[in-house]
Amino acid sequence: MAGKKKSPLRKCIVTNEMKPKKELIRVVRTPEGDVLIDHTSKKSGRGAYISANVEVISDAKKKNVFARHLKVKVPEEIYDQLLEEVEKG
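^ thats the sequence. predicted structure below, dont judge the formating
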């Protein structure tokens, strides 16, 4: 009786929706203090998940949500990279 493997759920820091991990993008603050997009979801450090949606990312940029969650100043380029990735699909 091999059942379906459950997909782990994570919460989007903007919408507070629980979604499968694969539908979200992880941004991580490394132990050195760098902030980067974690495509593998395996980098060490404090992570925060955001929905892969242009409106949600724009909202996060306006409210500077990552700075609060990661407890570090987040460069504008991170938001721009996230928007680029979502727009190109």
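The chain has one domain: 9-88.
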